[in-house]
Amino acid sequence: MPLRVVVAGATGVVGRALLPLLRERGHHVTALARKADRLEELSVDEIAAVDLLEPDALRIHLRRAAPDVVIDQSSAFGAADPQEALQRTAKLRERGTKNLMDAAVAAGARRFIAQGMTAAYRPHGHDVLEEDSPLWVHVPGRWGDLVRALASVEEDLFSRPGIEGVSLRYGSLYGPDTHYAPGGDVHARVVGSELPLVGDGVGLTSFTHVDDAAGVILELLEGGDPGAYNVVDNEPAESSEWLPAYARMAGAPAPVALTMEQAKSQLDWLTVHQLTEQRGASNFRLRETLGWKPSWPSWREGFASLFGLWPA
């Protein structure tokens, strides 16, 4: 049955993949974004230029849209400075997503789908983590601010009366227009030999293609229980595995190797953490409850597609 759907962050990498799928299914789509000039190119039923940090304006727009489902795919990870991106995204989650939830409840929406991330899990041994694993709320710095904001949003989301809350915890998003695509930040760092192998390279990354992120949202518009879902591929990868493979596919030099001591003196804390101790995540819940299968089961094929090395 066609639904009335509001998508915040409609011009982001997941939003752009999602909007055509929603229209193909016959849903009525209202797209929200902060800048009006970025909305004009979208093929949707209605558009609204509104800042998620402006609660009164949000309430007006959502009351007018009368959504069944509200989807938040907003972020500030496009900021050039990584620390600024973390700070702005934490603020957006803590205040913007909650403003959007308030407006969704006031407008009578039945379901709210928010964006989380598996990188927020607290590392634990060599485990691949599931949805009941704790978030790393005690980690310091900007990263800690973001994780605490995500945890706060999910606590609110899962306890709100009158609306069903779903949090989609993505792995590292890749695909067109992401940091991993040619010209993106990760691509530039790898090509410039600025992303090294550190120590044994046992930090695990779970990857999520933007097409799979968008596809899961379609499945959860009405189906599936409220709660958190890891939206990741089937193959968490150690940095010692995925980073050299990515470099080869990108035609970049092989990553240099640093000891832990060298890395700590040359790299930021978050990069060292991701390369050495971050844990991957399991998509078991999605597969078992929804029968979901990623269209890109492994980052290997997905990376190859980015560089024209995989059959279309």
From TrEMBL:
- Domain of life, per the record? Bacteria
Q: Looking at the Swiss-Prot or TrEMBL record, what is one Pfam family this protein matches?
A: Epimerase
A GO molecular function assigned to this protein is: aldehyde dehydrogenase (NAD+) activity
- Give an example GO cellular component term for this record: cytoplasm
| NAD-dependent epimerase/dehydratase domain sequence ranges | 5-231
What is the protein's name according to its record?
A: NAD(P)-dependent oxidoreductase
State the species of origin. Saccharopolyspora terrae
